[in-house]
Amino acid sequence: MPNPDYPTRSVVTIAVLILTAITSYVRIIHNVHNTEKETSSTGGIMLRLPNEESVHYSSEQQQHINHYQRNQRRRRRLDLLSSDPASVSIKAENENIHRNTDTDTAAATADQTTTSSSSYNYAVLIISYHKTGHDLQEDLINLLLDEFPPPIIGPNITAKGTKSLVRRRMHTPVHLCSRLYLQPGTIAVQHAPDFFCTADKLAKILLHEGEVRKSLSPTEKKNDRGVKIIHLIRNPFTMAVSNYHYHAKRPIPKTEMWITRQNPCQVTYPNGELYADYVLPSLSKRSYEALNINYESRLILRSEFEAIVNDCESIYQKRKGLETANQFDHLMNLDAPEGLRIATAELTVQGDNNGGDMLRMSNNILKLKQAEKIVQNSWMGTSTSTQGGGGGGHNREFQVNTMSLDDFISNPERSALEFLNFVFDHSNDVSTEQKERAAAKYSQTYLNKKEGSRHITDGKAADKKQLAEYLRHDAVFGPPMKKIEMLVETALADSRDTVML
């Protein structure tokens, strides 16, 4: 006998099948939506390079790209509202962007910058360290973009904007140098790079690796003029005092919260490698031909390095009430001499994350000047199109202009003019009057900014001269810092003689 419930079960079965189909469809749509969302916001954009390599962008990297594109759209809107040709900024055809990842091991570039879109054919790089001009980097880039906009005159900014091309204070064991993949026709910044490879390898990295990564066309190779590096450094005594004043106050800026977690006396990288083993070899000589400089003893002795470490360890978490305190607590509770010693030790010998920039700066002064001399006196300045008998090559330049933050503070207009004279030399169609107007405008902008900026600390502490003299005459810090001071002054004088004002 037929089951009387059969029709009802059939209807139920059909209903279940329909519901299952609808559920599956909704899941498919949901997955597609999530995939699109992840691609745009959580690290999933994939770009295809000419050599068919894939580049994967992280969430942080994609945020930088989105920020850059928003700025580009804003600039285009302003262009449409302006009738002044001089106000024309980056045009739509320059929206294509160039990208470096944040690690040396994944420093692939997305082929999105067309160098021919700018008449400027150098790769420009601005380098700084903690308290030598981190904010100044951004100001100088804005000066170029506002007063000499591409593609008419100046270089294009990379997708990183005013952020470092790769992770600061890091290198791979294989290369020992931060690999930046510079591209002609662009301007970029790098904060606190590690340049611990040989000078000739550094020259190849900065002059040639970008060309290899981007696979320039023959025309682009022919137009590539080389690299211009603005190296922002500082007198070690004013650098140390500024560092101390900046961190020994409340509130702690969000970007500086590391000071509550970092041991100022730690001398190793996160992987356990000794910072001294990387930075001291190039600083352990008596003379440096690239700068025609000679010392009575070696620039930095290992014993001097170790003396700073021992001094730091004799203070840090050794005072009553500070046995478990962090670096910031020490700076807030110790008298100025001891707090200054802790802060200066971190700036000099500390190898983890945010420290060691005084010696890193010294190392890089030497490596960049040595690389510059090598290129000037060897085949390395010749375009790779000549290698292998290809012909049609030309000499590419490797120029380093060492500049001091102290000079930008004391005479911003003159320093800005020196910067512009270096970027736009005789090969560029930029008049002296244009550069002078831009330098004057920069000076006024800087003075206005200085009044309300916490980051610009110079001149705001009455004891800065006394603290600098304290370090100068100190038995531990004085000898090595005075030798670094000589190195800094020699490098600055060498650049001033080269760049005509």
Please supply descriptive tags for the structure shown above.
five-stranded parallel β-sheet; alpha/beta; 501 residues; two-stranded antiparallel sheet
Q: In what order do the strands lie side by side in the largest sheet?
A: 6-7-5-8-11
Q: So what's the overall shape?
A: globular
Give the tally of β-strands.
11
Q: What's the pLDDT, averaged over the residues?
A: 77
Structural class based on helices, strands and sheet pairing: alpha/beta
Distance between the termini: 109 Å
Pattern of helices and strands: HEEHEEEHEEHHEHHEEHHHHEHHHHH
How many helices in DSSP terms? 16
Main sheet: strands, sense, barrel: 5 strands, parallel
Explain what this protein looks like in three dimensions:
With 501 residues, this protein is α/β, with parallel strands linked by helices. Helix content is 47%, strand content 9%. It has 16 helices and eleven strands. The protein has helices spanning 6-41, 59-81, 134-147, 199-214, 218-223, 236-247, 275-279, 302-315, 327-333, 336-349, 357-376, 405-410, 412-423, 432-451, 464-472, 478-498, and strands at residues 46-48, 54-56, 99-100, 109-110, 122-128, 156-157, 186-191, 226-233, 287-288, 293-294, 397-404. The strands form four sheets. It has a five-stranded parallel beta sheet with strand order 6-7-5-8-11, with helices on both faces. Strands 1-2 form a two-stranded antiparallel ribbon. Strand 9 and strand 10 (293-294) form a beta hairpin. The longest helix is centred in the first third of the chain and has 36 residues, at 6-41. It is globular, with a radius of gyration of 27 Å. Mean pLDDT is 77; it is low at 32-57, 72-116 and 385-393.
